[in-house]
Structures are given as C-alpha cells and as structure tokens.
Amino acid sequence: MLYQLRAHGGTAPSNCIDFSTPINPLGVPEVIKQIICESIKDGVYSSYPDYSYKMLREAVAEFYDINHEFIVPLNGAAEALYLIVGVERPTAAMIFEPTFGDHRPLFHILSMNYISIQYTELFDRYTLPFNILSSLSKSIHSRCIVLFSNPNNPLGVCVPVETIEKILQMYRRCIIIVDEAFIELSNNCESTLRLTRDYENIIVLRSLTKTFSVPGLRIGFLYTSNTNLLYKIELFRQPWNLNSITNYVFSRALHEYRDDLRKFIEYSKHVIECERQFLEQSLHKLRIHFYRSSAPFILVRFHTDVKYIGQSLRRLGVWIRDASTFQSLTKYHGRISVKLRKDNERLINVLKSVLEEEYT
Ligand SMILES: Cc1ncc(COP(=O)(O)O)c(C=O)c1O
Asked: How many angstroms separate the CA atoms of 333 and 86, rounded?
C-alpha cells in the first residue's frame, strides 16, 4: 500500500512494552504536562500560532545559550532535511549508513545523486571511515550536502567534534548537516553547536521531541550562522510549521522552568547511562552480541532471525525494533531502546526465556 512505503519501525502493539521508539525513558516532565493541560483549558488550539515564533526562538536561545537569530523552529528535527534540500537544491549528497531511514527516499524522488558511505564494523562498535571521506573530498566539486546523525541511529556511535571540524574544513563548499537528535540523551558525545561560531557550512539539528518525550507534539530546531541559508529557509518554510499547542508549551516551559528542565536533562542522561550499562551487562550474560553505544538505544545482533525473536518477544509483551530494514544491517540485527529498570528487567527475563526455548 502506498501509505506504507516508508520503512519505520512500526507502531508497538498496545499490550507490549515499547522498546522500539528511542525517546527519553523518563517520559514527559511534569511541568510540561501541566502547561499542556493549561494550553487546552485556555483553548490555545483555536488560534494560529505566531507565524514568526518569536517567543519560542527566544526561549530556545535562552535555554541552550545560543543566538535566537540563528534558530529555525521545526516540526521535529526530521523537517530540517526537506527545508535544506528545498532551498539549497544540492546536486549531490553524501550520507553515512546505516542511518535514520528517511534520507534515501527523499534523494530518490528528487533524482539526486548520493554517495553512501558505510560505517566500519569493528568487533563491538562501529567507526566512521575518515580515510574514505578524506580521499573523496578532492573529487567533490559540486554543491553538495553531507549528512550524518551524531550519535548515529541505529549504531549509537558518536563522532568527535574534532573530526567533524576536519570534515568542515575538507568540504568547505558543502553543507554539513549534523543531526544531534539524541545528543541530550547521550553520554560521551559532545555537541557541534560551538562550531557554528567559526563555520558557516554547518547546520546542527536538535530534537526536543526525543529529549522531552513528546513525539505526539513534535518539536526540534535547526541552528546555523549561515544567514544566507537562514534567509532562504525563512521564505521557504511552510507557514505555521509548528502547531499552536507546541509553540505555547515550549515558549513557556523553556523560559519559566529553565533550571528545572536543564536538571531534568542531566538526570535523564545519568539514568540512561546506568540503565544502558545494566542492559549491556545482562546482554553479555545472555551471550547476545551488542555494539557499544553513546545513545539511548543499543544495536544487537542475534544468532537467529530478528523477525522470529521479535514475534516470540511480542507474544510475551515486549516489542523491539527490527533493525534489518536499515541499510547494510542484516536479518539478525535488532535495536533496543533503553528504558527504566523495571521494564529493562522484564526485557532481559523475556529474552532469556525466548533464547532458552530456542535451544531446547
Ligand atoms: C537521527 C534522527 N533524527 C531525527 C529523528 C526524528 O526526530 P523528530 O521526531 O524530532 O523529527 C529521528 C527519529 O528517530 C532520528 O533517528
């Protein structure tokens, strides 16, 4: 069916714990829930949002200590690529795979040439093949975009800022898009936001959808000091691209509860780190191969087809992401989002019984 053309992970059945959607396992902060309720009570949904999103831009700028003039609020980080491709009309693109699955269909439908560079698999982690990038840089002369998620989804690998700076220097004529959708929930992964001070060819993407666990509201932003590009995006973007509830809630929450929400992010990172370690140790005991991750999810490689494992887990109330749909991964790969301890223990127990069943 046409509306099933896009290969995302699917929706978790309502009777399953969802380990497939990678968002903050702590859920929506109470203050945000409270402001959502107030927005409904005040009938915010019956007006268009302020077209310029002035208050939202200022709240985001204050919260992240960045320049409000360099921000474009987005209907989720995923909106950015469509805007950038729309205004830049690049003749070529370079992507690093496996990655978030929406890039290829876009390039395909626009008949854009793209180069796919595969992350290199080491035993228990992946790494960016910098030497390939370096040799290709001499042959790319056209207007191009270079796109990678940092940390990468689904690999969890994080490229150091110093490496990204070298890429910016090597590809001066290209626009480098660094999708930091998961960075606020990741450990040992430094943001590239500071590079925007010295380089105009970088665009950083952020997803508050992931950070504050609001996939039903959707909010992100792009950040760049390239004023020419910002000018074009401002004219090109869809009017009212964020809805009035999202605009109201985050304009207020980021400003009025700045310190609380900053602490919430720090605490989230801490919990995710502890829980990821718990999951890694448990997977190790179960002899399930996994890859080192900085992100709030772990890529695993089962001995058996992930579809079979997934079906068995589903019967026991657990839903994981079949990662075989990601470019260059195999039918054995799955992705597990880090959740809170009770759910993580449930996953491990259920996995254990599925594997025991398999070997008996
Ligand atoms: C790398 C990456 N960027 C962006 C997104 C989408 O973010 P948002 O929901 O804010 O559009 C995802 C979703 O999983 C993702 O994996």
From this structure: 34
Q: Residue 140 and residue 161: Cα distance in Å, rounded? A: 22
Does the predicted TM-score (pTM) go above 0.85? yes
Instruction: Say if residues 224 and 230 touch (Cβ distance below 8 Å).
Output: yes
Task: Dump pLDDT digits (tens) for 249-293.
Answer: 999 999 999 999 999 999 999 999 999 999 999 999 999 999 999
Residue type (1 letter), 12: A
Residues contacting 289, CB < 8 A, separation 6+? 124, 300, 301, 302
CA distance 315 to 301: 20
Ligand 1 neighbourhood includes 75 CB (under 6 angstroms): no
| Count of other CB atoms within 10 angstroms of residue 235 | 8
Q: Can you tell me the distance from the alpha carbon of 319 to that of 357, in angstroms, rounded to the nearest whole number?
A: 18
Instruction: Tell which one of 79, 95, 100 to mutate to probe ligand 1, the residue whose CB is within 8 A of the most ligand atoms.
Output: 100
For the CA of 152, the nearest atom of ligand 1? 1
Count of Cβ atoms closer than 10 Å to residue 48 Cβ: 10
Q: Which domains does the chain have, with CATH numbers?
A: 11-27+260-359 (3.90.1150.10), 30-257 (3.40.640.10)
In terms of phi and psi (left: phi > 0; alpha: psi -120 to 50; beta: otherwise), the region of 64 is alpha
The three-state secondary structure class of 182 is coil
Could you tell me where the DSSP H helices lie in 213-257?
227-236, 244-256
Task: Count the helices and strands in the chain (H runs, E runs).
Answer: 12, 15
